[in-house]
Amino acid sequence: MGTTASQLGKDLLSEYQELTFLTKQEILLAHKRFTELLTKDEKDLPNVRVPMEKILTLPELKSNPFRTRICQVFSTSIVKDGSLTFEDFLDLLSAFSDSATLEIKSHYAFRIFDFDDDGTLDCGDLEKLVNCLTGETEDTRLTPEEMRQLIHNILDESDIDKDGTVNLSEFQHVISRSPDFVSSFKIVL
Amino acid sequence: TSWRQWRQSTHRYLRRLQDDVHEWLTALQLWRSDIHIIEGMFGTGILSYFSFLRFLVMLNLIIFTLMFSFVLLPIIIAPHFMLVFICSVYPTSARQGLVIFHEHIADLLSGGGFLEQTYLFYGYYKADKIHFPGTTYNLPLAYLLVTVAYLFLSLIWIVKRSANGFKRNLVQDEDRFQSFCNKIFAGWDFCISNMNAAKLKRSSLLYELRTDLEEERIKQKIADRTREEKCRIYLIRVILNLFVIAVLACCFYSIYIATIFSQEAQMNEVKVNFIVDLIHQYLPSIVITLANFITPLLFSVVINYEDYSPAFEIRFTLMRCVFMRLTSIGVLLFSLWSHITKCKEEPCVCGYNHVLYSCWETRIGQEMYKLTVFDFIIIVAVTIFVEFPRKLIVKYCDCGLAKWWGQQEFAIPQNVLEIVYGQTICWIGAFYSPMLPAICTIKYFFIFYIKKVSLMKNCRPATRPFRASSSNFFFLGVLLIGLSLACVPVIVSVAQINCSQACGPFVNYTTSWEVLPTAISQLPSGVQTLLFTVSSEAFAVSFFVVTCLAMFYVIALAGAHKRVIKQLREQLAMVGILNLFEGCQPWCNFTLRKIHLML
């Protein structure tokens, strides 16, 4: 870890510490893991983008059903290909860290669950979300009848203004009363 | 300005310092990395079991520290001697003459023989006042106060830990209509990084969703039930509950019989042979373990016919198991108590059977010691001789039966029940055997590693997992039941039963409790009046009234809050201007935050 510390630079490190919810150790570990994904010549370049496929090989993300969505949400790439720079990567870890606030976590959760990026969770988003959770194969899927009932129940519970979709405020309202969310919305390297 | 800059930089510096200190402190925590790995692989449900185990290790360590510093240490460093009275014949049970090796093993397992007269048991603490140069140390008083202190300490610590979970539970309970949202929006455990665990999590989520949807339908069906159907179901439930009670009664009776038989066999001077003696010694433990193995299986069969909703089924079976586990200790103690206070000619001269039980406290300490040791042996044995072979069979045998059987499930409720049972024994036993908390600390320390290995190598997580929030509360709830159950025998034996006249710190008193009034009467009169006022009825009544008032205030406050919440919800729904809030965004990406910092 000594070599990576010198690579990252003391000023940069303390700046990152300011900007994220991560501790020094976590940032150093993140840097180490990130540089492992780079090829030899890329290591010297500043602000390298790692393509999504490579990020997804990380074991922490590999078995996560929302892995592509997570990359897409945190990517600052203009072409929206889900590629991450180191700072994007830190942003990701920061949102999923222990000390990130509920507000931030629920905000990112909302964006991850909003599959079509239209700012609300509609029936299509909810169906995709449920399928992500239970698995895509035929026998793990809910039947259309069950799905209809489930989405009806979800909207019944969370859609306060009855417009047929869950918007951000409604989502945060629901999440704030869900006791498990903060402890489970976490990725640790 | 420079002043502002300086303030900002110091603020930043302090924050970093705080972070560093926090990091250091967490690094010092026991098993941090192990628990981290478990959390990463199996999610938060199983994590809460292991952090519960860690909590028990810490608790026992603290209890032992208390015992050690106030009871053991004074008696170790100071010389003391005692006078001999009529009731105080206490024959040593250490083996005379040539001792064979296996007898040492038997002593070690049963707490008898050479172990009996050591710091391990109550009987050895036979000292009244310990004279140090300058002061005298009242050992009996210290012994009693430490007992009270460790029970109180445990209570406060558990309540403090559970308060958090309880709050969450209340929130969740209030929002029962939000269960689907919880499962969908907060259902995935992002910590999971193990492929298998992820697969399991998926199937368990699917299972939960299906059962919940099913439950909705069942609720509908229950609401539509006719009167005859209701009558039939209630009749079946009554009959099955009677059956359950009968099973419980059978178990309790066999524990009683086993205890009495084992006590009588131990009194017998004629030794048969090593193994038979050991079985006699361990008979109550064996019967309790067997009963606790069979009854849960029975209960899980019985519950199928009672036609409850699926969620309630699990909870109800669990409640029955908790009752069975914890009450069996109570039955054991009751049978011991009835045997100890039974004399040939009534009433007993010394208040207890001083012929057979010259030092009955040590005897109970030995029983608790045996239960602890046996519990540990069973946990180790089950892991090595049942779970491990089962895994080998499932892994290397291709036949359908083995596949159907599958690996052992890591069922959290059963495992928690197991360690709560051990802890209850420890609380009861700590009075009779001051070293028991130390033994329990070591025991839980090893159990942590055994369970970790067993989880990683032998078991698969349960298909119907526990949620972290509800489980934390459940663990502490069961532990609290265990604690209150442990208090009863300790209080009864301290306040009611005559303490042994042959051994222990209370030889000069009729009951252990008498130490306290005696000690108080030696205090200066000012302090005495103060203490008497505090313990008087007038004070108790007024204190009770004040507590009631405070409680009513809190209840009223809660009601008001609830009403406000309801009103606000209505307002939200009516106005429907939620979208207005859309504009402000608390998250902003890196570049924005950077700009913010520069400004």
UniProtKB/TrEMBL annotation, chain A:
<dbReference type="GO" id="GO:0000287">
    <property type="term" value="F:magnesium ion binding"/>
</dbReference>
<dbReference type="GO" id="GO:0005509">
    <property type="term" value="F:calcium ion binding"/>
</dbReference>
<keyword id="KW-0479">Metal-binding</keyword>
<keyword id="KW-0106">Calcium</keyword>
<dbReference type="InterPro" id="IPR018247">
    <property type="entry name" value="EF_Hand_1_Ca_BS"/>
</dbReference>
<dbReference type="InterPro" id="IPR011992">
    <property type="entry name" value="EF-hand-dom_pair"/>
</dbReference>
<feature type="domain" description="EF-hand">
    <location>
        <begin position="101"/>
        <end position="136"/>
    </location>
</feature>
<dbReference type="InterPro" id="IPR002048">
    <property type="entry name" value="EF_hand_dom"/>
</dbReference>
<dbReference type="InterPro" id="IPR051433">
    <property type="entry name" value="CIBP"/>
</dbReference>
<keyword id="KW-0460">Magnesium</keyword>
<feature type="domain" description="EF-hand">
    <location>
        <begin position="146"/>
        <end position="181"/>
    </location>
</feature>
<protein>
    <submittedName>
        <fullName>Calcium and integrin binding 1 (calmyrin)</fullName>
    </submittedName>
</protein>
<keyword id="KW-0677">Repeat</keyword>
<dbReference type="Pfam" id="PF13499">
    <property type="entry name" value="EF-hand_7"/>
</dbReference>
Automatic annotation (TrEMBL), chain B:
<feature type="transmembrane region" description="Helical">
    <location>
        <begin position="538"/>
        <end position="560"/>
    </location>
</feature>
<dbReference type="InterPro" id="IPR038900">
    <property type="entry name" value="TMC"/>
</dbReference>
<feature type="transmembrane region" description="Helical">
    <location>
        <begin position="234"/>
        <end position="262"/>
    </location>
</feature>
<dbReference type="GO" id="GO:0005886">
    <property type="term" value="C:plasma membrane"/>
</dbReference>
<feature type="transmembrane region" description="Helical">
    <location>
        <begin position="137"/>
        <end position="159"/>
    </location>
</feature>
<feature type="domain" description="TMC">
    <location>
        <begin position="359"/>
        <end position="469"/>
    </location>
</feature>
<feature type="transmembrane region" description="Helical">
    <location>
        <begin position="282"/>
        <end position="305"/>
    </location>
</feature>
<keyword id="KW-0812">Transmembrane</keyword>
<dbReference type="Pfam" id="PF07810">
    <property type="entry name" value="TMC"/>
</dbReference>
<dbReference type="InterPro" id="IPR012496">
    <property type="entry name" value="TMC_dom"/>
</dbReference>
<keyword id="KW-1133">Transmembrane helix</keyword>
<keyword id="KW-0472">Membrane</keyword>
<comment type="similarity">
    <text>Belongs to the TMC family.</text>
</comment>
<protein>
    <recommendedName>
        <fullName>Transmembrane channel-like protein</fullName>
    </recommendedName>
</protein>
<feature type="transmembrane region" description="Helical">
    <location>
        <begin position="368"/>
        <end position="386"/>
    </location>
</feature>
<dbReference type="GO" id="GO:0008381">
    <property type="term" value="F:mechanosensitive monoatomic ion channel activity"/>
</dbReference>
<feature type="transmembrane region" description="Helical">
    <location>
        <begin position="473"/>
        <end position="492"/>
    </location>
</feature>
